[in-house]
Amino acid sequence: MARLNVAADIELYYQLGGAATEETIVFVNGLTVDTSAWNGVATAFADSYRTLVYDCRGQGQSDKPPGPYSPTQHAADLKSLLNGLKLEKVHLVGLSNGGLIAMIVAGELSTAAQRILSLSVIDSFVHVDPMLKLIVESWKAALNSGGAALRFDVATPWVWGHSFVNQHAAEIAAFREQAAAADPEIISYLLDGLLSFGNAHKSLRSYEGPLLAIVGQEDILTPLRYSHEIVEWARYGMLVTVDHAGHAAPIERPEAVSKILRGFIARHKDFMTPLWGETEDSYDPS
After folding, report:
1. Largest CB tally within 10 Å, which of 21, 161, 270, 278?
2. Strands, E, within 39-178: which ranges?
3. How far apart are CA 262 and CA 59, in angstroms?
4. Within a domain: residue 165?
5. Domain that holds residue 262
6. Cβ atoms of residues 60 and 27 within 8 Å
7. Are 48 and 36 in contact (CB under 8 A)?
8. What proportions of the chain, in percent to the nearest 5, are helix, strand and coil?
9. Is residue 280 part of a domain?
10. What is the CATH number of the domain that holds 246?
């Protein structure tokens, strides 16, 4: 089990694999999930890129010190992980809260020439607006009332797409069993950290490379308007939607997400055309 010290009080669990290349694709977890969320996607890149998956603090097999864990703290951890592993040419890919973390890191490392080669955010958001706060606060209330299992039950209709819920009942049940075993205090640290955050507009505008926003068409937690906002704040941005996917597109539609990511990452230099104010672009990932 590989672990790296990223701060005085914490070690992060990580898996570094794939091809022995200069470029590394770094996958950043969504809130409360672990590295297994990327199982269906990371393997699609192992033949041509180095890949890094890791657990944010408080998640999976990483340490869980006293919180709360803000996106800014997660971003500092990720920068320490990149430095500790001496990864210099990086493609960042983040899901949901992981996308927010990736945007902060990309903005803060924007002056490091060619370090962040591309940025892809999936079902993500750049601003914890009042609507998103209301939803997360309902999860916190459920956690306080009925523990981790009730928190999962309340979150489920927001997180999973209509297609996935209707076709994958056994998988949803397995996810619930795993979630119910989590420590409610640690989940509270994660939720409180997110609730305390404002926006990453400045970080995103500081990022000087190409950005891809992917959003599931059935995502009701962070629907299309959130990805529009991300692309509007990016210097070079584009947006792609995924059919039959909710807020967890890499889990619900891993093949589709992998195909889109592969096309964008392979051709990331082609997308350095300013799109200030534009939010959508036709894109053939083949």
Report:
1. 161
2. 50-54, 89-95, 116-122
3. 27
4. no
5. 2-127+199-271
6. no
7. no
8. 45, 20, 35
9. no
10. 3.40.50.1820
Q: Is 53 a member of any domain? A: yes
Question: Position of tokens 């059935």?
Answer: 218
Reading the block at residue 174, the tokens are 């397995």
Encode the chain (286 residues) as per-residue pLDDT tens digits: 699 999 887 999 999 999 989 999 999 999 999 999 999 999 999 999 999 999 999 999 999 999 999 999 999 999 999 999 999 999 999 999 999 999 999 999 976 667 999 999 999 999 999 999 999 999 999 999 999 999 999 999 999 999 999 999 999 999 999 999 999 999 999 999 999 999 999 999 999 999 999 999 999 999 999 999 999 999 899 999 999 999 999 999 999 999 999 999 998 888 776 544 444 443 344 3
For the chain, the domain total comes to 1
Instruction: Name, in order, each residue with C-beta under 8 angstroms of 223's C-beta and a sequence gap of 6 or more.
Output: 215
For 67, residues 6+ apart whose C-beta sits below 8 A from its C-beta are 58, 186, 188, 189, 190, 192, 193
Q: Does 149 fall in a domain?
A: no
User: Which single residue is written with the structure tokens 């706060």?
Assistant: 133
Q: CA–CA separation, 162 vs 221, rounded Å?
A: 12
Amino acid at 4: L
